[in-house]
Write a structure and sequence with these properties.
Blueprint lengths: L12 H8 L3 H7 L11 E2 L6 E10 L5 H7 L7 E6 L6 E3 L1 H9 L4 E8 L2 H7 L3 E6 L11 E2 L3 E3 L2 E3 L4 E5 L2 E5 L4 H23 L4 H4 L2 H7 L12
Parallel strand pairs: 2-3, 3-5, 4-5, 5-6
Antiparallel strand pairs: 1-6, 2-7, 2-10, 8-9, 10-11
Length: 229
């Protein structure tokens, strides 16, 4: 069945805003090293760090009709997540659709397919994380669904889940666990701050993390280099 679900439950705005300040690496580690989208999902220009609830789109290869349908379901602060039903590199998205999403207050796009008009998108400061950049366009012939669970770049994304994206990639946070994850991110950053101070003071990670004994157990041997004759 092809369907558009309206008025989806979204993660609290405070949770999305709170997670944005930590970035993808911290969020991923804090939630048990889960939620990362595939490494090929890259930003089309550097410097953006955003977080917001997902509006999801399932659509056919080489057909962007359902992105237009999805725009109507977007609210300020949302992230649009687009997943073709089979692999496609076509340029589903460009400057005109970005203008439409920006008018709705959408923060950015995650698309496991191609993007084009990248110079214009950078000038607009509309961030996109895509599988590739490719100028080949799409058609508008076949329908799909909006606000259904999708698998995007290997990660399950449910409507309303939080998407965190920055220069390191993209991570999905389940909607119901988002608020609790903030405390875990704070704790992780506090631990890292203490380690950072020790490293800057000259201590070695070998000692801070207690690695020496484990390395010995694994069979690592230190020897002085032989003297030159």
């Amino acid at each position: 069945m092809n369907v558009v679900f309206r008025n989806i439950p979204r993660a609290p705005a405070a949770a999305a805003e709170g997670l944005a300040r930590f970035g993808v690496a911290t969020v991923h580690e804090a939630q048990g090293r889960t939620g990362l989208l595939a490494s090929y999902m890259r930003p089309i220009y550097p410097g953006s760090r955003i977080s917001g609830p997902a509006v999801t789109v399932s659509l056919p290869p080489c057909d962007n009709w359902m992105i237009h349908v999805a725009v109507e379901q977007c609210q300020p602060g949302d992230m649009l997540v687009v997943a073709p039903t089979s692999s496609s590199d076509s340029g589903y998205f460009g400057e005109l659709l970005a203008q439409s999403l920006m008018a709705r207050g959408v923060l950015g796009l995650i698309i496991e397919a191609g993007c084009r008009d990248t110079r214009d998108l950078a000038e607009l400061k509309f961030p996109v994380w895509s599988k590739c950049i490719f100028s080949q366009g799409t058609v508008k012939e076949t329908i799909g669904s909006v606000n259904v669970p999708v698998v995007c770049a290997g990660a399950l994304v449910n409507p309303g889940d939080i998407i965190v994206a920055d220069d390191d990639g993209v991570c999905v946070v389940p909607r119901k666990g988002a608020a609790a994850l903030i405390d875990k991110c704070v704790a992780r950053e506090e631990r890292e701050a203490k380690v950072r101070a020790r490293l800057k003071a000259g201590e070695l990670g070998l000692d801070i993390y207690g690695m020496r004994e484990r390395l010995t157990e694994r069979g690592l041997v230190y020897k002085d280099a032989p003297a030159e004759e």
